[in-house]
UniProtKB/TrEMBL annotation:
Protein name: Bidirectional sugar transporter SWEET
Protein family (similarity comment): Belongs to the SWEET sugar transporter family.
Superkingdom in the source lineage: Eukaryota
Subcellular location(s) of the protein: Cell membrane
GO cellular component: plasma membrane
Bias (Acidic residues): 286-295
Biological role: Mediates both low-affinity uptake and efflux of sugar across the plasma membrane.
Organism whose genome encodes this protein: Acorus calamus
TM region positions: 12-37, 49-67, 73-95, 107-127, 133-155, 167-188, 194-215
Bilayer topology term: Multi-pass membrane protein
Gene Ontology molecular function terms on file: sugar transmembrane transporter activity
Length: 295
C-alpha cells in the first residue's frame, strides 16, 4: 500500500498543496446553504443528492489513493471531504421532512454502502497488485466523467434562454482553475487517473466561461418566474462534486386572500409540497391578485 508514500517531484507537491487549498474552500462553500436551513428550520427545496454523491466521490478517491503511489495529498483532502459531507448529510437529515429523510437514508445505503461495498469486495478478492490499481482508477475516472456531464443540461439552457442567471461566472472559473491544478498534479506524479478526468473538467469550465462572455456581449434576457436550479459542479480532491445549493428552489410564501363569500375572509392559501418542489403554485387563489407571484 502507498498510504504514506511521499510526493518526490517538488512541482507535484506544490500543485497538490494548492489543489488541497482550493478544494478545501470548495468543500466549505455549502455552509451558507446550511445556515439558511438552520435559520428557517427547514430544508425547503434543497436536495441531499449532491452531498451523498460528493461523499461517494471522496470515498472512491481515498480507496484509490490507498493503493496508488504518491497519494498522501489525495488522502488528506478527500478525508476532509468525507468528514464535511457527512456533517452536511446529518444536518440535512435533522431538518428534512420525513419523506426526504427516508429518501436520503435509502440513497446512502444504496450508493455509499451497497455500491461502494461491491467495488471494495470485487477489487480486494478478484484482483491484486497493479491490476487492482488500474481497476479502481478507471472506476474513479468513469464516475468523474459521468458527473462532469451534468453541466451539459445547464449549458443547453443558457444557449436556449440566453440567460446566465443560473450559471454564475465564479463557479465556472473555480471549476477551470481546479481542473488545471489537479491535471498538473496528475502529470507530475505520472498518474493518468488523476489527470484524465480533469481534462474534461477544464474543457467544460472553459466552455462555460466563453458562453458566459458570449451571452453578456449579446445582452442576456431576464427570465420571469422561478429560476432554474443552480447546479454547482466543482472539482474536489480529484473527483467532481456537486456542492453548494444543489437543486435550489425558493418556496412560495403564503398570503391571506380577502373578499370571500359573504364578506368573510377566506383562509390563506397553503401551497402543497408539490407546489414548493416545482417552484410554482398552479391554480392558486393568488393568481387573482394584482402583481406577479413572488417565488
Amino acid at each position: 500500500m502507498a498510504l504514506l508514500s511521499r510526493v518526490d517531484h517538488p512541482l507535484a507537491f506544490s500543485f497538490g498543496l494548492l489543489g488541497n487549498l482550493i478544494s478545501f474552500m470548495v468543500y466549505l462553500s455549502p455552509i451558507p446553504t446550511f445556515y439558511r436551513i438552520h435559520r428557517k428550520g427547514s430544508t425547503e427545496g434543497f436536495q441531499s443528492i449532491p452531498y451523498v454523491v460528493g461523499l461517494f466521490s471522496a470515498m472512491l478517491w481515498i480507496y484509490y489513493a490507498i493503493f496508488a503511489p504518491h497519494s498522501g495529498l489525495l488522502i488528506s483532502i478527500n478525508s476532509f471531504g468525507c468528514f464535511i459531507q457527512t456533517v452536511y448529510i446529518c444536518f440535512f437529515i435533522i431538518y428534512a421532512p420525513k419523506s426526504l429523510k427516508i429518501h436520503t437514508v435509502k440513497l446512502l445505503l444504496y450508493l455509499n454502502v451497497g455500491v461502494f461495498g461491491i467495488i471494495v469486495l470485487f477489487t480486494l478478492f478478484l484482483s491484486k497488485g497493479s491490476m487492482r490499481i488500474q481497476i479502481i482508477g478507471w472506476i474513479c475516472v468513469s464516475f468523474s466523467v459521468s458527473v462532469f456531464a451534468a453541466p451539459l443540461t445547464i449549458i443547453m439552457k443558457v444557449i436556449h434562454t440566453r440567460s446566465v442567471e443560473y450559471m454564475p461566472i465564479w463557479l465556472s472559473f473555480s471549476l477551470t482553475i481546479s481542473a488545471v491544478i489537479w491535471f498538473l498534479y496528475g502529470v507530475f506524479t505520472k498518474d493518468r487517473y488523476v489527470a484524465l478526468p480533469n481534462i474534461l473538467g477544464f474543457l467544460f469550465g472553459t466552455l462555460q466561461m466563453i458562453l458566459y462572455g458570449w451571452v453578456k456581449c449579446l445582452g442576456q434576457r431576464r427570465i420571469d418566474g422561478p429560476k432554474l436550479p443552480v447546479v454547482n459542479i466543482g472539482i474536489v480532491g480529484v473527483g467532481p462534486i456537486i456542492s453548494g445549493g444543489g437543486s435550489e428552489v425558493h418556496p412560495i410564501e403564503a398570503r391571506p386572500v380577502t373578499g370571500g363569500v359573504g364578506g368573510e375572509e377566506e383562509k390563506p392559501y397553503e401551497p402543497s409540497d408539490r407546489d414548493i418542489i416545482e417552484g410554482v403554485a398552479h391554480d392558486s387563489p393568488l393568481e387573482d391578485q394584482e402583481g406577479p407571484l413572488e417565488v
